[in-house]
C-alpha cells in the first residue's frame, strides 16, 4: 500500500478521569461509538452550529484521547478546549514532534487483509470497501511523492478538510458531510451547537453539500466561485489534476442540471457528483431553489 507523511498535522492529548466526559459534552462525535484502533472525524462548533475546529479523534489507552488537527490551528484549539475544562479532571496539551503517517489502498494495489499496518488507526471517514490507516509517532515516512497521490485519493473520495476545502467558522457539519461519515452523533446528549445541527437533521434542511468536481482540464485554485448559468452555486476546494472538492448548493446544481445550464469554475466546465459512499441525494424537485 502507498504511504506518506503528513507534516502539516498536529496531535492534542486530552487525558485524565474526566477526559471523555469533557469531550463528549462539547464535540460532535459520539465517543460511545469510538472503538479502539480507529480514528473518527468530529468538530467543535460555535453556539450557532458552525465548525470552529475540525479533527480526527482516537483512543490511546485508558482515559487518553488524541485529537489530530491542522498544525496551524492546534494552539488555538488547545486554548479553546481549556476554556471548557473548568473543574474537570483532565489535562490538555499539544504533543511535540509527533509524526502523522497515512496508508491507503488504491486500485492498483488493494490490501489483502483487514489487519492494520503496524497497529495503525483505521480512518473511518472512508467507507467500506475503501481502507485507510493513520499512525502517530516514529516510523517510515513513505515516498515523499506520495503526498500528491494522497491528496488525489482523498479528493476523489470526497473527503473535505478545513483550510484547502472550506473555511472554519463558515460551514455547518452537514455542509461538509460530517453527518454522513460518523462525525456527528445524533443520539448523544447535548454538545456545543447541538440544537442547530439536530434541527437541520430532523427538518432535512441541509442544502449545501460536498460534491466531487471533475473537468477535462486542470482546475482553478481553491476558493474559485462555481457558476451555474452565470449564477453562483458554491466554490471549489482543493484540487488534484482534473478533480476537486466542491462545496455547493445541491438544489441549485440540480436545477441548473435539469435546465441544461453549464456549470463552470473559471474557464473549466465541471461535472459534479455525489461521493459514492454518501447517502444523501439531489432534491427531486429543485425548480424553486432559493438564492442563498
Q: What do these coordinates show?
A:
The protein has about 290 residues and is α+β, with helices and mostly antiparallel strands. It folds into 2 domains: about 5-155, 2-Layer Sandwich (Alpha-Beta Plaits); about 205-290, Elongation Factor Tu (Ef-tu), domain 3, CATH 2.40.30. The protein is about 15% helix and about 30% strand. It has helices at about 20-25, 75-85, 145-155, 195-205, 250-260, and strands at about 5, 10-15, 40-45, 50-60, 65-70, 90-95, 100-105, 120-125, 130-135, 210-215, 225-230, 230-240, 245-250, 265, 270, 270-275. The strands form 2 sheets. It has a 9-stranded mixed β-sheet with strand order 1-7-9-8-3-4-5-2-6, sandwiched between helices. Strands 15-14-11-12-13-10-16 form a 7-stranded antiparallel β-sheet. The N and C termini lie far apart (about 45 Å).
Number of strands: 16
Write the CATH homologous superfamily of the largest domain. Aminomethyltransferase beta-barrel domains
In the CATH hierarchy, what is the architecture of the largest domain at level 2?
2-Layer Sandwich
Globular, elongated, flat, extended or rod-shaped: what is the shape?
Answer: globular
Helix coverage percent: 10-25%
Element-by-element helix/strand order: EEHEEEHEEEEHHEEEEHEEE
- Multimeric state of these chains? single chain
Query: Mind telling me the C-alpha Rg?
Result: 19 Å
Largest sheet: 9 strands, mixed
Number of helices: 5
Task: Return the CATH class of the largest domain.
Answer: Alpha Beta
Number of domains: 2
Mean pLDDT value:
92
| CATH topology term of the largest domain | Alpha-Beta Plaits
Low-pLDDT windows of residues = none
Briefly note the structural class of the backbone: alpha+beta
In terms of DSSP E residues, the strand content is 25-35%
Lateral arrangement of strands in the main beta sheet? 1-7-9-8-3-4-5-2-6
Alpha-carbon distance between the termini? 43 Å
Amino acid at each position: 500500500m502507498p504511504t506518506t507523511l503528513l507534516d502539516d498535522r498536529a496531535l492534542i492529548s486530552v487525558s485524565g478521569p474526566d477526559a471523555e466526559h469533557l469531550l463528549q459534552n462539547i464535540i460532535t462525535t459520539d465517543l460511545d461509538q469510538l472503538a479502539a484502533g480507529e480514528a473518527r472525524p468530529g468538530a467543535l462548533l460555535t453556539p450557532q452550529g458552525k465548525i470552529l475546529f475540525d479533527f480526527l479523534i482516537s483512543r490511546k489507552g485508558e482515559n487518553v484521547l488524541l485529537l489530530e488537527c491542522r498544525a496551524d490551528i492546534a494552539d488555538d484549539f488547545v486554548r479553546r478546549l481549556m476554556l471548557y475544562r473548568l473543574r474537570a479532571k483532565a489535562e490538555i496539551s499539544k504533543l511535540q514532534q509527533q509524526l502523522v503517517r497515512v496508508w491507503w489502498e488504491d486500485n492498483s494495489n488493494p490490501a489483502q487483509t483487514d489487519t492494520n499496518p503496524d497497529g495503525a488507526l483505521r480512518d473511518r471517514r472512508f467507507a467500506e470497501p475503501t481502507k485507510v490507516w493513520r499512525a502517530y509517532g516514529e516510523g517510515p515516512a513513505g515516498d515523499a511523492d506520495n503526498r500528491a497521490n494522497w491528496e488525489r485519493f482523498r479528493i476523489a473520495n470526497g473527503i473535505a478538510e478545513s483550510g484547502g476545502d472550506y473555511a472554519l467558522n463558515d460551514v455547518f457539519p452537514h455542509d461538509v458531510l460530517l453527518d454522513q461519515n460518523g462525525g456527528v452523533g445524533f443520539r448523544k446528549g447535548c454538545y456545543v451547537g447541538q440544537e442547530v445541527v439536530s434541527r437541520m437533521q430532523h427538518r432535512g434542511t441541509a442544502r449545501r453539500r460536498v460534491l466531487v468536481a471533475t473537468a477535462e482540464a486542470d482546475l482553478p485554485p481553491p476558493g474559485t466561485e462555481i457558476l451555474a448559468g452565470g449564477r453562483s452555486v458554491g466554490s471549489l476546494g482543493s484540487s488534484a489534476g482534473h478533480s476537486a472538492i466542491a462545496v455547493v448548493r445541491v438544489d441549485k446544481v440540480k436545477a441548473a442540471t435539469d435546465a441544461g445550464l453549464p456549470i463552470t469554475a473559471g474557464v473549466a466546465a465541471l461535472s459534479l457528483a455525489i461521493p459514492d459512499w454518501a447517502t444523501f441525494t439531489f432534491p427531486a424537485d429543485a425548480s424553486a431553489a432559493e438564492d442563498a
